[in-house]
Amino acid sequence: MGNVKLVSLRIITADIKRLVQFFEDATGITAKWATDDFAEVISDSFTLAIGSTRTLAFFGDDVAEPVNNRSIIIEFLVENVDDNYEVIKGLTSEIVQKPTTMPWGNRSLLFRDPDGNLINFFTPVSDEAKKKFA
Predict the structure, then answer these.
(1) Which of 17, 34, 84, 121 is deepest in the core (most CB within 10 A)?
(2) What's the gap between Cα 90 and its chain centre?
(3) Could you tell me if 32 and 47 are in contact, meaning their C-beta atoms sit under 8 angstroms apart?
(4) 125 and 82 co-located in one domain
(5) CA 105, CA 114: separation in Å to the nearest integer?
(6) DSSP strands (E only) in the chain
(7) Whose CA is closest to 117, among 54, 58, 78, 65?
(8) CATH code for the domain in which residue 5 is found
(9) Cα separation of 134 and 127, whole Å?
């Protein structure tokens, strides 16, 4: 099968301007807009693509449905999750879990974006977790 590389994650939304603005504010990264219906938040380590529901016409009917994800958590490694918490709590009232040190050694902040997608900002704090993400 050859080399397989995850290139990006894409969120489909009915309100692309709102969701792109949220991720710009949450990550501090300015999105690159390809069209009015498609933008990408790009860093050295990830690309988060955000498409409007109008982009689904290219794939066929009933391919994806916005605001219905209840199984995926999008995770971002951040320098200091407690500092990020101060920013995030100003962006959303849907804090699922305030910064908490998890049994596997990451300090984690779990919240929902405006479409209800679960987002995890985390910082490795144990020696083992720090080694994993070094």
Answers:
(1) 121
(2) 16
(3) no
(4) yes
(5) 28
(6) 9-13, 32-35, 38-42, 47-52, 73-77, 95-101, 106-112, 118-124
(7) 65
(8) 3.10.180.10
(9) 10
pTM across the whole model? 0.90
| Residue 64 falls inside a structural domain | no
Distance between start and end Cα atoms, the chain: 29
Pairing of strands 38-42, 32-35: antiparallel
Q: Which two tokens stand for residue 46?
A: 């990830």
- Show the CA angle centred on residue 59, arms to residues 55 and 61, nearest 5°: 95
Report the C-alpha gap between 110 and 126 in whole angstroms. 19
Query: What's the rounded Cα separation, in Å, for the pair 62 and 60?
Result: 7
Local mean pLDDT, 10-residue blocks, the chain (134 residues): 88 96 97 97 96 86 78 94 96 97 98 96 97 92
Helix (H, G, I), strand (E, B) or coil at 128: helix
State the total domains in the chain: 2
Q: Is residue 114 exposed (0-12), middle (13-18) or buried (19+ Cβ within 10 Å)?
A: middle
* Beta-ladder partners of 89: none
Residues 40 and 81 in one domain: no
Give 28's Cβ-side CA count (13 Å radius): 6
